[in-house]
Amino acid sequence: MPDGLMRDGLMRDGLMPDGLMPDGLMPDGLMVRVSALQLYPAGLPERVVKILNAVSREASVADINTWNITTVDTLSSLMNQKNGDWTSEKVRSPCGHGWFSRVLGHQQSDAVAQIDHKRNAAQSKAVIMRYLSVPGNTLRSTEINAVRSYLCTLDVGVLGSITAESLRNANPVNVSSCSADQKTALYSIAKSSFSTQRSDPTAYYQLISTYL
């Protein structure tokens, strides 16, 4: 959803009053962000978080840590690939606003790209951890399918909480961006997940190879 449509939706739903931030003062994404902070200084309610869509990719970790993310539907909405990649090539502006970002394109240096990747990996990790901070929320198969390869942004200890059943019932995960320790943790779970297939070496290898 384009930023302007999201802003109009917030106004229509009474979540951002018309005129709170005048048109033309700043880009729509930042206008929505500043307006939301004015309305919800204690943090964005879930009904707002769920419709952030592509604007969510401009958030800083500090922003995300004020969001309410309690349901898997909200988690899935935030991690939806249609909203863009959390590892898109953005950097913060000199004024320090996490949502005030710009695309540097071909002029971006390798050093900046590496810093940017880490920052955006931190964003996706923050989203997942906000969800997991809610009592009762865990990385079940539905959650794994929602976050996909962003599992590789999580600490090994968090990955270790995934049950064999959850990994078995989830879609295969691309672990190419995982560290060696993360791959080891997921592989250990996968061995338990598909242990009943060991009598068929070919089938077992096909299932386990994703996590090698």
Task: Give the helix/strand layout.
Elements: H1 3-12, H2 28-39, H3 46-49, H4 61-64, H5 72-79, E1 90-92, E2 101-103, H6 110-132, H7 141-147, H8 156-159, H9 164-169, H10 180-193, H11 201-208
Antiparallel strand pairs: 1-2
Helix pairs in contact: 1-2, 5-6, 5-7
Features:
212 residues; mainly alpha; 11 helices
Verbal overview:
With 212 residues, the chain is mostly helical. The chain contains 11 helices and 2 strands, in the order αααααββαααααα. The protein has helices spanning 3-12, 28-39, 46-49, 61-64, 72-79, 110-132, 141-147, 156-159, 164-169, 180-193, 201-208; strands at residues 90-92, 101-103. The chain has a two-stranded antiparallel sheet with strand order 1-2. α1 packs parallel to α2, α5 packs antiparallel against α6 and α5 runs parallel beside α7 (141-147). It is elongated.
The gross shape turns out to be: elongated
Query: What is the rounded Rg?
Result: 19 Å
Note the main sheet. 2 strands, antiparallel
Major sheet strand order: 1-2
Proportion of residues in β-strands: under 5%
Q: Which structural class best describes the helix and strand composition?
A: mainly alpha
How far apart the termini lie comes to: 37 Å
Tell me, rounded to a whole number, the average pLDDT.
77
Helix content: 40-55%
Number of strands: 2
Please provide the ordered H/E string of secondary-structure elements.
Answer: HHHHHEEHHHHHH
Total of DSSP H or I helical runs spanning 4+ residues: 11
- Unreliable segments (pLDDT under 50, ≥5 consecutive)? 1-6, 11-28, 88-117
